[in-house]
Amino acid sequence: MRLADLVTASFLALLGGLVVFDAVRLGTGWGTDGPQSGFLPFWLGALLIAACVTIFFQAARRADGTPFVTRQQLGPVLKVLAPAVAFVALIHWLGLYVSAALYTGFYMRWIGRHAWLTVLAVAVLFPLVTFLVFEKWFLVPMPKGPLEAWLGH
Amino acid sequence: MGIENLLLGFHVAITPYNLFIAVVGITLGTVIGVLPGLGGANGVAILLPLTFTMPPTSAIILLTSLYWGALFGGAITSVLFNIPGEPWSVATTFDGYPLARQGQGGQALTAAFTSSFVGALFSIVLITFFAPLLAEVALKFGPPEFFAIQLLTFSSFVGLGGGNPVKSLVAILLGFILAAVGLDVVTGQLRMTFGFLDLMKGFDFIVAVIGLFGIGEILLSVEEGLSFRSIPTGMNLRVVLDTWKVLPRYRRTFVRGAFIGFWMGFKPGGATPASFMSYAFAKRFSKHPERFGKGELEGVVAPETAAHAAGVAAILPMITLGIPGSPTAAVMLGGLIIWGLQPGPLLFQEKPEFVWGLIASMYTGNFIGVLMVLAFVPLFAAILRIPFAILTPVIVVVCAVGSYAVHSSMIDIWYMLIFGVVGYAFKKLDYPLAPLVLALVLGDLAENALRQSLIMSQGTPGIFVTRPIAGAITAVAIFFFVLPALTPWWRRFHGSAPAPRAT
User: Fold this and answer.
1) Is A35 on the interface with B (CB under 8 A)?
2) Is the Cβ pair A104, B173 closer than 8 Å?
3) Structural domain includes residue B492
4) Fewer beta carbons within 10 Å, N or C terminal of chain B?
5) Contact flag B174-A12 (C-beta cutoff 8 Å)
6) How close A148 gets to chain B, by Cα (Å)?
């Protein structure tokens, strides 16, 4: 935890530096008709740096051996995160509905080891219901791919 | 004076369409409250894009009903699965789960729902009377007063939020910084985009809420090794009626919980400490404190009354001042802005049918809600028997749909994932997420109030101190900001042991 705390605080302080840098570019003082664009960001960034320095020293002084994440914890987390990232990447090519079908099916088979019939049923029905609710009922369009184009949507 | 307004409100809330909307909202909300990784805040966020085409009153009824449903749903998982669906349900597990293990799950659930209803009703009645008065007072507020209230909102996270106050401050600052990214509408300049076109649109709070609370929560729960062991609900009409006969015994606990809940609730982040405080008080005043934690019905009544009273009270500052008291209320406030309503005291004059429709729907919504959860608990509990390998992708897909729907932009889904990882890391490192979301929602409003105040005073920050109302509020805010720094000194002077803080 200690190391993660130090890294996070340093990273956020850098972010604060970036904010201050941009605020200075915009002007942090008084314009012709009120505070300039960089006025509030400048103070936000400056305070962020100050707070992060405080957290950094608080964490540095503390002896804390517990790791941020253990190996046993990291496995399941990555097993959720990696397929989710792949799913979002697939949306670019295949649209949301087909990606959702592939993602749900893959995950159910891989993690849950469900029977193929269950996998197939959920992977087809769930995107289909989502499609009907969003595209047909609420008229909220989702990203679509070649399959939808082929079906004429 | 308020009666005819309330009648007007009921006229709006009791139309068949709006009642139907309330039932849909409560059903979805309860489902969302039961599911791990989906809570009130991101449930409301995911549904928000669907309300863009609805009339605003129906839209707010849908979202508030969802909120009531989520509050009820949190109790179900706490009692039957020992999994608090929401942070304010943690105290409910202390006695709720032992009761369920002793075969009294039905009694515990009936007590939980009834207490929730009583707590909510208490807060709604107070809102009915106080909201117009508060709005009347707030009408005289200018930008400096509004900025001072914003300051007070955020100072209470730092001073009263528990945990590390510096980390709360960092969360607030990050929220404001994220809110400032993109086009500055006042000067027309681009801020913090560093030449990236995608950053021009800025970060939407809906996406942040879905990522931080939705995806982040899933990552956290799989890490803890998710396993659901359900206990039969044991609910039937006889159990409900028998429990209702016993409950009047705890009237003091009800009253105490409701007061604590309301008092804590209209301040931000209040529901969770309120539930713990109410539990602690009930234990202290009980004749049998040793029974608490082993399955005492009063230990369910106390936190649930307070949590629900607080959850409802969070609506009060949202409709009267335009300042939300909880992340869920913050998302609703964002909705108000999207529907073209100006949150704040003017709402009472300009859109009475909206405000009073909302208040009346709080009565009807909670009434329908308590009946629905009492009747359908086994159905809702069955949701958690859906295998984890199906739930996870379904939740992720629903979150992605909600994020995309806001602006029809792919980048928002990627932001959602990034916010998810950030939410996971922040939760582990004890950076609070609620103030971050609140700052992200209020960022533009707060900056405008600050700008207008400074223009009024020609640049001297003294305006926040010299105007009487703003000055008083600023003073309290500053007190809360420095409170964490003062506390160690105070303790040293009095030589008392540091009190455990409820978080």
Assistant:
1) yes
2) no
3) no
4) N
5) yes
6) 17
Residue B307 to residue B56: CA distance in whole angstroms = 27
Tell me the backbone φ, ψ of residue B176, rounded to 5 degrees.
-65, -40
Would the CB atoms of B389 and A112 count as touching at under 8 Å? yes
**A132–B contact, CB cutoff 8 A:** no
pLDDT per position as a tens digit, B308-342? 898 888 888 888 888 887 788 888 888 888 888 88
DSSP E strands in B147-250: the ranges are 182-183, 190-191
Secondary structure class of B299 (helix, strand, coil): helix
Total structural domains in chain B? 1
Q: Of B489, B138, B177, which is closest to residue B342 (Cα–Cα)?
A: B138
**Complex ipTM value:** 0.93
Q: What is the DSSP string of chain A?
A: -HHHHHHHHHHHHHHHHHHHHHHHHH-SSEETTEE-TTHHHHHHHHHHHHHHHHHHHHHHHS-----SS-HHHHHHHHHHHHHHHHHHHHHHHHHHHHHHHHHHHHHIIIII---HHHHHHHHHHHHHHHHIIIIIIS-----B-HHHHHTT-
Of A101-110, B112-121, B152-161, the poorest mean pLDDT is in B152-161
Read off the pLDDT of each residue in B460-474 and give the average, rounded to a whole number.
85
Partners of A110 on chain B (C-beta within 8 Å) are 389
Question: Which strand (E) or helix (H) includes residue B159?
Answer: helix B143-160
Mean pLDDT of chain B: 84
- The HSE-up count of residue B309 (CA atoms within 13 Å, CB side) is 31
Domain ranges of chain A: 2-61, 71-150
A73 near B CB under 8 A: yes
Cβ B56 vs Cβ B354: under 8 Å: yes
Number of residues in chain A: 153
> Which residues in chain A have their CB less than 8 angstroms from residue B169's CB?
47, 51
Domain range spanning residue B332?
A: 2-485
Q: Which amino acid is at B230?
A: S
A85 to chain B: which residues are within 8 Å by CB?
417
* A143 closest CB neighbour out of B223, B404, B417: B404
A96 contacts in chain B (CB < 8 Å): 397, 400-401, 404
Q: How far apart are the C-alpha atoms of A58 and A76, rounded to whole Å?
A: 31
Nearest CB to A35 within list B169, B222, B454: B454
Distance of CA B12 to the CA centre of its chain: 25
Residue B497 lies in a domain: no
Is residue B206 within 8 Å of A56, Cβ to Cβ? no
Task: Tokens for B339, please give them.
Answer: 């529907």
Give the burial string for B476-498 (b: 16+ CB within 10 Å, else e).
Answer: bbbebbebbeeeeeeeeeeeeee
CB < 8 Å from B in window 49-68 of A: 51-52, 54-55, 58, 68
Distance (Å) from the alpha carbon of A149 to chain B's nearest alpha carbon:
18
- Per DSSP bridges, beta strands B190-191 and B182-183 are antiparallel
Cα distance from A150 to chain B (closest Cα, Å)? 22
Q: What pTM was estimated for this model as a whole?
A: 0.84
Element (H, E) at B8: helix B2-13
Q: Is residue B202 predicted with pLDDT exceeding 60?
A: yes
